[in-house]
Each structure stands twice: as structure tokens, then as C-alpha cells.
């Protein structure tokens, strides 16, 4: 049975959504990143980058990075990939836009707006303005397209959904109000049973919730020399 190494944070939620959509059984393995379990030697053998998520397939193949997992599982199952004349390159373009731009800039915006010990105005402005630009790119695309890849729901939409869940940490109470086409897709995906199932996974786990000094050291060990 596939093993899914999970914490209820944005990137694992992408994979959780796909696994719930696929409907195949999997073993849920908690990785408490607030305690630093992602740095444990046994886990680093699965994901040398020390991040979540990761999966281990039935044959022992380990795959890490959320977008790589999405693409691998979609190809293995032959689902949630373009099935019409839409070029595969269009899927790859939007998937990698999410992977290399939208996701990391969302993460940096959340970090500098919420997690730094003291406000850093330049960093806050830099990452907020850039993620606003990414949301405008998505909003413009979705003004003319039901999904990111034409009229088909694909792993590119799932990749987007993972971080869109955390948009209130960037935009506050306004949420996705300024991006109506993005909000439309986000709400559509969130209404799917698989999305409810993905969110429900955290209820099966007991995880640390306090964002204290131990958590900061676990999440941002590279910052320790600055202390």
C-alpha cells in the first residue's frame, strides 16, 4: 500500500486532494514538522530535502516534492491529465508556474507577513506584491478558461488549490475578493468531496499546534546562526 508522509500544510494538501480523488487506499504517515520530524535520518532517506510531502509506492519507489508527486501519480493512474487535444505542454506550463512561482512566493509572503520575529518592510512588500502579481496571472487565465488547462480539471488545479487555502494569511479578511475568477475555481474545488477528505486527514493525527521557539528551529533551522 502506498505510504503518504503528511502534515496539513499547503504542499501536502495538494497531494492529499489527488489521493482522495483517485480513491485508492493509502497509509497516512504523520510527519510533525513543528517538532522537526522532517529532519529525522529515516525520513531524509525518503526525502533528502527534509520537507513534506513524500510518498513511497508499493514497489518501494520514493517520490518527493508535491508537484513531482502529482505528476507521477497522475501518469501512473492515467487520470487528471489532459485527455482532449489540449497540448500536454499547457499542463506542464501551468503546473510549473505553480511549482516555481505561485507556491514559493505564497510561502514567502506567508512567512514574512506572519512568522518573522520582527517586521521587515522590504521583504513584506517584495513578497506581497509578487504574489499579488501571481494571483493576477491566474485570474486573467481563469477569466477565459474554466480550469487552468482548458475545460478539464487536472493536477494543475490541484496544485493551485493547496496554497489557495492559505490565502487569508496573505490577504486577511479580503481573501480572494480581488481575484473573482480565482475564487470561483477555489470554491469549486473546495466543494468537491475529495477536498473535504483531504482536509479531514488532519483529524486522524495528533500534531503539535504551538508556534513556539522549538517550532521556529524545526521549520527554519537555517536561521539558527543568526540567533
From TrEMBL:
<dbReference type="InterPro" id="IPR036249">
    <property type="entry name" value="Thioredoxin-like_sf"/>
</dbReference>
<feature type="domain" description="GST N-terminal">
    <location>
        <begin position="1"/>
        <end position="81"/>
    </location>
</feature>
<dbReference type="InterPro" id="IPR036282">
    <property type="entry name" value="Glutathione-S-Trfase_C_sf"/>
</dbReference>
<dbReference type="InterPro" id="IPR010987">
    <property type="entry name" value="Glutathione-S-Trfase_C-like"/>
</dbReference>
<dbReference type="InterPro" id="IPR004045">
    <property type="entry name" value="Glutathione_S-Trfase_N"/>
</dbReference>
<dbReference type="InterPro" id="IPR040079">
    <property type="entry name" value="Glutathione_S-Trfase"/>
</dbReference>
<dbReference type="Pfam" id="PF00043">
    <property type="entry name" value="GST_C"/>
</dbReference>
<feature type="domain" description="GST C-terminal">
    <location>
        <begin position="84"/>
        <end position="211"/>
    </location>
</feature>
<dbReference type="Pfam" id="PF13409">
    <property type="entry name" value="GST_N_2"/>
</dbReference>
<dbReference type="InterPro" id="IPR004046">
    <property type="entry name" value="GST_C"/>
</dbReference>
<protein>
    <submittedName>
        <fullName>Glutathione S-transferase family protein</fullName>
    </submittedName>
</protein>
Amino acid at each position: 500500500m502506498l505510504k503518504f508522509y503528511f502534515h496539513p500544510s499547503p504542499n501536502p494538501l495538494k497531494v492529499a486532494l489527488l489521493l482522495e480523488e483517485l480513491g485508492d487506499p493509502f497509509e497516512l504517515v504523520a510527519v510533525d514538522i513543528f517538532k522537526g520530524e522532517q529532519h529525522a535520518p529515516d525520513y531524509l532517506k525518503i526525502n533528502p530535502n527534509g520537507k513534506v510531502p513524500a510518498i513511497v509506492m508499493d514497489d518501494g519507489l520514493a517520490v518527493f516534492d508535491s508537484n513531482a508527486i502529482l505528476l507521477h501519480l497522475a501518469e501512473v493512474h492515467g487520470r487528471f491529465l489532459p485527455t482532449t487535444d489540449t497540448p500536454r505542454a499547457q499542463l506542464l506550463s501551468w503546473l510549473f508556474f505553480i511549482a516555481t512561482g505561485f507556491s514559493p512566493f505564497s510561502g514567502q509572503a506567508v512567512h514574512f507577513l506572519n512568522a518573522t520575529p520582527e517586521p521587515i518592510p522590504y521583504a513584506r512588500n517584495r513578497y506581497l506584491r509578487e504574489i499579488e502579481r501571481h494571483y493576477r496571472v491566474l485570474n486573467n487565465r481563469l477569466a477565459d478558461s474554466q480550469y487552468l488547462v482548458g475545460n478539464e480539471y487536472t493536477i494543475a488545479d490541484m496544485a493551485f488549490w493547496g496554497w489557495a487555502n492559505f490565502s487569508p494569511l496573505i490577504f486577511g479578511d479580503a481573501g480572494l475578493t480581488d481575484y473573482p475568477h480565482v475564487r470561483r475555481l477555489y470554491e469549486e474545488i473546495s466543494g468537491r468531496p475529495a477536498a473535504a477528505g483531504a482536509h479531514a486527514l488532519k483529524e486522524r493525527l495528533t500534531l503539535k499546534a504551538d508556534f513556539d521557539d522549538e517550532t521556529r528551529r524545526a521549520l527554519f533551522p537555517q536561521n539558527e546562526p543568526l540567533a
